[in-house]
């Protein structure tokens, strides 16, 4: 469908209740892309639990399949599936990262990663599933190597941020790590040779057209040559790099500021996610979900982005996370302080 | 805990005339009652008073009796012979309420520029407001412009909900907040 021409509506498919505190984050199982596998995602909450939700193939309705509890002793801030969809990693304010394995429908905690001084805030697996990155309030980013037998070995502790690190994200195809922080910057970590150490090769800060307050989240487009960041400064920013050059082994290609989407958000933007077909969704503290797409006009001055749709009062309270389903087109999940998760379908009005 | 006054020469302001409330009317459980400036002021004022007691004068329990009187504005700052309102730590004007948009903004003024308690005071204000107001309310808490040495840093921390959430999982801090009487009527 041509999104720019149609009258769009973000239709609420289902509201999922179960968490007893704010829902901080959610993650789709990447195995969801296969047609014969039911869609699954995990959510985590201030109630110290993780819930696994699965879609029934017959009724298409979503149910809670498992509650992962009694492992984390404080808020579970974020969760991430390994690329194979077999392992789930969870980061908690209790300073630990837990690794869960699905054993015949039951989730077992098979490993606990300790090392951060205090709150672990985010984590991410690299594209091959061989590395896991974690970050937290101790201003550090840790890179863990996945060893046989569910062992994890810390390869490196990255220091550079001057405040707590809110989120880490690997590039979708290359082993380049991105971290965003309360110090208003995004740092890019890269290792020149495969076995070498990661070092900070670029800082996207205010002096390079970056954000002027906490950067909460970032997301890549399908090609991996653009990324979007969202911030407490009420803006989204789009960045671009020559990844063809990088992929051909020609050294590091820096990320450059492409444009800033300002004037759309009224309160902190906590979450941003770029769909495979190019729709950027944002979730903010003004309880609204917004969708943006690259605009077809304005190619004269380089690409620009426009607001496609705004869903006011999508939740009763702040929206902490928005995530597009990797398989089904135009299915979006959102998590909120109101303790609920909602599933949305982007549909064209007749 | 504290020897000598933190702020020996505070600026003193005039008190504001206050409108009378109709105390004879019984509260109607079902009536939609807009939350107004004065109500929030009362909540926060009581808080400030209790906060100062708990920090500096833990043993002065008898003062708590006074908080149940209606004249909380006239209660003295334990450090000074002036009331909190006269010191303008918090004033009714510093509370902005937008009932339509369910929005509250509180601006407080630490009595000294280097008040190390500003973050804790702000955090406690936020928690009490969170518990007293309906959950749909959005709130911003900040120190008054130009009144604190690390104003921007304090404001940023007070309004980062992740940091606030983590702080409230700290049992010591939560105990401190919980020790104050529940102000929700």
From TrEMBL, chain A:
The keyword Acetylation does not apply. Keywords: Repeat, WD repeat. It comes from the Eukaryota. WD repeats lie at residues 16-54, 69-101, 113-146, 158-189, 208-240, 312-350. GO terms for biological process: iron-sulfur cluster assembly. Gene3D superfamilies: YVTN repeat-like/Quinoprotein amine dehydrogenase. InterPro entries: CIAO1/Cia1, WD40/YVTN_repeat-like_dom_sf, WD40_PAC1, WD40_repeat_CS, WD40_repeat_dom_sf, WD40_rpt. SUPFAM superfamilies: WD40 repeat-like. The keyword Repeat applies. GO terms for cellular component: cytosolic [4Fe-4S] assembly targeting complex. HAMAP family: ciao1. Essential component of the cytosolic iron-sulfur (Fe/S) protein assembly machinery. Required for the maturation of extramitochondrial Fe/S proteins. Belongs to the WD repeat CIA1 family. This is Probable cytosolic iron-sulfur protein assembly protein CIAO1 homolog. It comes from Theobroma cacao.
């Amino acid at each position: 469908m041509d999104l720019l021409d149609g009258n769009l509506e973000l239709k609420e498919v289902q509201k999922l209740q179960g968490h007893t505190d704010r829902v901080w984050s959610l993650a789709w199982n990447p195995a969801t892309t296969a047609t014969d596998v039911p869609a699954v995602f995990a959510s985590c909450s201030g109630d110290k639990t993780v819930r696994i939700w699965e879609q029934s193939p017959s009724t298409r309705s979503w149910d809670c399949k498992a509650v992962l509890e009694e492992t984390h002793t404080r808020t579970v801030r974020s969760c991430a599936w390994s690329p194979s969809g077999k392992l789930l990693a969870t980061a908690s304010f209790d300073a630990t990262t837990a690794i869960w394995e699905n054993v015949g429908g039951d989730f077992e905690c098979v490993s606990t990663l300790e090392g951060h001084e205090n709150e672990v805030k985010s984590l991410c697996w690299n594209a091959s599933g061989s590395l896991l990155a974690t970050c937290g309030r101790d201003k550090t980013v840790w890179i863990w190597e996945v060893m046989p037998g569910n062992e994890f070995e810390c390869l490196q502790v990255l220091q550079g941020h001057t405040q707590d690190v809110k989120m880490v994200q690997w590039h979708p195809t290359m082993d380049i790590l991105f971290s965003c922080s309360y110090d208003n910057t995004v740092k890019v970590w890269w290792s020149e040779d495969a076995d070498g150490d990661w070092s900070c090769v670029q800082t996207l800060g205010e002096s390079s057209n970056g954000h002027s307050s906490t950067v909460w989240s970032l997301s890549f487009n399908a090609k991996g040559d653009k990324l979007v960041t969202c911030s407490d400064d009420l803006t989204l920013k789009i960045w671009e790099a020559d990844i063809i050059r990088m992929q051909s082994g020609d050294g590091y290609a820096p990320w450059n500021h492409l444009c800033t989407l300002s004037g759309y958000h009224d309160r902190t933007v906590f979450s941003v996610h770029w769909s495979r077909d190019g729709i950027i969704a944002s979730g903010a503290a003004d309880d609204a979900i917004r969708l943006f797409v690259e605009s077809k006009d304005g190619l004269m001055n380089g690409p620009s982005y426009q607001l496609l749709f705004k869903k006011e009062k999508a939740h009763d309270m702040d929206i902490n996370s928005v995530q597009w389903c990797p398989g089904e087109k135009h299915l979006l999940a959102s998590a909120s302080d109101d303790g609920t998760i909602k599933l949305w379908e982007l549909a064209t009005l007749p | 805990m504290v020897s000598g006054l933190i702020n020996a020469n505070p600026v003193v302001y005039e008190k504001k005339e206050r409108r009378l409330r109709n105390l004879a009317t019984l509260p109607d459980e079902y009536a939609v009652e807009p939350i107004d400036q004065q109500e929030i002021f009362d909540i926060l004022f009581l808080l400030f008073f209790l906060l100062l007691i708990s920090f500096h004068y833990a043993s002065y329990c008898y003062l708590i009796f006074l908080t149940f009187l209606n004249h909380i504005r006239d209660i003295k700052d334990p450090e000074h012979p002036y009331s909190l309102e006269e010191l303008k730590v918090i004033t009714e004007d510093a509370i902005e309420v937008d009932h339509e948009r369910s929005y509250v903004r509180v601006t407080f003024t630490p009595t000294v520029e280097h008040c190390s308690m500003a973050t804790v005071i702000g955090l406690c204000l936020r928690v009490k407001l969170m518990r007293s107001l309906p959950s749909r309310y959005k709130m911003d808490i900040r120190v008054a412009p130009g009144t604190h040495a690390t104003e921007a840093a304090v404001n940023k921390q007070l309004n980062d909900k992740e940091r606030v959430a983590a702080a409230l999982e700290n049992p010591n801090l939560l105990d401190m907040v919980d020790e104050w009487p529940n102000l929700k009527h």
